Amino acid sequence: MKLIWNGHSCFTLETAEGSVVFDPYQEGSVPGLSRLHLTADSVLCSHEHRDHGARELVTLTGHAPAFSVETISTFHDPEGGALRGPDTIHILSAEGMRLAHLGDLGCELAPEQLDRLRGLDVLLIPVGGYYTIDAKQAQALAEELKPRIVVPMHYRSDTFGYEVISGVEDFLSLRSDVVRYPGNTMEIVPGTPAQTAVLTYLP
């Protein structure tokens, strides 16, 4: 499978069973990010905020994907959604591998939810804090789940992102297996080594 980071929490996943875009953002909703022009078989959004729910910016192919998707209902904040509403985790199974996109997870997960997230090949996890879990919380969750590949998202850099959230380095300083990619794409197969993969945003 091929994972492409489109910036913020938006990824395109291309698999033998079909393609999907996770959490496309509206133009202008995330400072510094370019307008999206994406095509896929399907779109999955963790919630309906402007920086995650812009389904209309993804051109659908009309093909029905053959991969399977599970969902886990969570919250965008630690107060049961009172501050920012619900959040949905998507778990996708394709090519014999499992990938989870946590959306804007902002709360702790219940034991039964953690159990459903064990055995992941890829975990797409927010790390910037303020609106989501922060670097230390993301590290604790990654240590609990032990996915083979961890991909941080929803953080700020010098050129993009919300000023109130942290950069990715806070999270990376807690990881010992960081691999930095010069581009925004990585190929993932069952034999891909365990790592924390940092993809580079390409406008």
Description:
With 203 residues, this protein is mainly beta. It has a single domain, classed as Ribonuclease Z/Hydroxyacylglutathione hydrolase-like (Metallo-beta-lactamase, Chain A, 4-Layer Sandwich). 10% of the residues lie in helices and 33% in strands. A seven-stranded mixed β-sheet has the order 7-8-9-10-11-14-12, with helices on one face.
Keywords:
33% strand, 203 residues, 14 strands, mainly beta, 10% helix, Metallo-beta-lactamase, Chain A
Number of strands: 14
CATH class identity: Alpha Beta
CATH architecture: 4-Layer Sandwich
Kindly, what is the distance between the CA atoms of the first and last residues, rounded to a whole number of angstroms?
Answer: 22 Å
Oligomer: single chain
CA radius of gyration is: 15 Å
Number of separate domains: 1
Largest sheet: 7 strands, mixed
Q: Which homologous superfamily in CATH is the superfamily?
A: Ribonuclease Z/Hydroxyacylglutathione hydrolase-like
Give the uncertain stretches in residue-range form. none
CATH topology name: Metallo-beta-lactamase, Chain A
Q: Structural class per helix/strand content?
A: mainly beta
Mean pLDDT: 97
Helix segment tally: 3
Question: What fraction of residues sit in β-strands?
Answer: 25-35%
Strand order of the largest sheet: 7-8-9-10-11-14-12
How would you sum up the global shape? globular
